[in-house]
Specification:
4-stranded antiparallel sheet; single chain; 2 helices
């Protein structure tokens, strides 16, 4: 992963109280990243946070998007 993309994803993860992230299955042409904390503690933030990356742009998935994404995750 290039440094710019890593920094962009990490900035969003930190904004939500996380200190790292991992790539999970792609969805509808987006690379999908799941932020988490190395110490295993989860900040109470409400809805799940998934970071979507496409064409050099990163953003957090909407409630509708993450709902669809979760439904299609393998068991």
């Amino acid at each position: 992963m290039d440094k710019k993309k890593q920094e962009m994803i990490m900035a969003i993860a930190k904004e939500y109280g996380f200190d790292t992230f991992e790539r999970i299955p792609d969805w509808k042409g987006y690379e999908v990243y799941s932020p988490y904390n190395k110490n295993g503690k989860m900040p109470f933030i409400g809805q799940p946070v998934f970071i979507l990356v496409k064409q050099g742009q990163a953003r957090v998935a909407t409630e509708e998007e993450w709902g669809q994404f979760i439904e299609n995750l393998p068991d």
